[in-house]
Each structure stands twice: as structure tokens, then as C-alpha cells.
């Protein structure tokens, strides 16, 4: 995840091990907001489901979709960017855990810079 506020069109970068997509500041804000909501959904579902039950959820904005699917102890996120150059990618469980832990700091940095 990256952010360069001085770039003209695509200030953000989202990616995984084998993919990356540049996003606008608005798309990055949407991603951060939907990430918070997805993490809340996952926390609520994992309290209700047994380990063998799978789940799936998608949240949408005009600009992108962020989805989660899998088992409570092993799920992945799926991102689709709907406008501009469009694209999609996936994060596996390990990457989601690392990203979830980093989101508060990332959000503070991005929102602190006026995104």
C-alpha cells in the first residue's frame, strides 16, 4: 500500500504478492473505509461460526468492491476497482492479517496528509 499525494491522477497504490493497481485518492479512501467495515464483519462472523463454516460478504461503493470469503481461520479479500483503468486482485489470509494490523497507522498517515 502506498500514497503519493503530489501525483496528478493516481495517488494511491494497492497490491499483493503478484499484482498492483494504482488508485485515486477517492478510491483509496473508499478502500480504507470498506476495510474497516470488512474487519468488523469478519470479527462478528467469526464469533458466530464454527471453524468449518465458510462465509462470504461484499461491500460496495461507486468506485470499488471489497469482498471477503473463506473460513473463520482462513479467509481472503478480493478487490475490484470499477472506474478508470479498472482492475482486481486478491489478498490471502496472511496478507490480510498484516494489512489489518497496519491499517491504523496507514490511515493516520493518509488522512493526516489530506487524502
Mind explaining what this structure looks like?
The protein is built from two helices and seven strands, in the order βββαββββα. The protein has helices spanning 25-48, 93-112, and strands at 2-3, 12-15, 20-23, 55-60, 64-71, 74-81, 87-91. The chain has one domain (2-108): Transcriptional Co-activator pc4, Chain A. It is 38% helix and 32% strand. The longest helix is centred in the N-terminal third of the chain and has 24 residues, at 25-48. A four-stranded antiparallel beta sheet has the order 4-5-6-7. A three-stranded antiparallel beta sheet has the order 1-2-3. By secondary structure, the chain is α+β, with helices and mostly antiparallel strands. Strand 4 (55-60) and strand 5 (64-71) form a beta hairpin. The relative contact order is 0.19.
What key phrases describe this protein's structure?
alpha+beta, 115 residues, Transcriptional Co-activator pc4, Chain A, three-stranded antiparallel sheet, four-stranded antiparallel sheet
**What is the name of the CATH topology?**
Transcriptional Co-activator pc4, Chain A
The count of β-strands is 7
Overall number of structural domains: 1
CATH superfamily: Transcriptional Coactivator Pc4, Chain A
* Widest sheet, order of strands: 4-5-6-7
Overall 3D form = globular
State the CATH architecture: Roll
Give the SSE order as H and E letters. EEEHEEEEH
Amino acid at each position: 500500500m502506498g500514497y503519493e499525494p503530489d501525483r496528478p491522477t493516481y495517488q494511491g497504490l494497492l497490491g499483493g504478492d503478484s499484482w498492483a493497481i494504482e488508485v485515486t485518492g477517492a478510491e483509496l479512501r473508499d478502500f480504507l473505509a470498506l476495510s474497516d467495515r470488512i474487519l468488523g464483519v469478519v470479527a462478528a462472523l467469526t464469533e458466530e461460526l464454527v471453524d468449518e463454516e465458510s462465509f462470504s460478504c461484499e461491500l460496495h461503493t461507486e468506485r470499488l468492491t471489497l469482498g471477503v470469503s473463506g473460513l473463520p481461520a482462513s479467509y481472503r479479500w478480493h478487490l475490484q476497482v470499477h472506474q478508470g483503468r479498472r482492475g482486481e486482485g486478491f489478498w490471502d489470509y496472511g496478507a490480510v492479517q498484516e494489512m489489518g494490523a497496519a491499517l491504523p497507522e496507514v490511515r493516520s498517515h493518509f488522512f493526516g496528509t489530506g487524502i
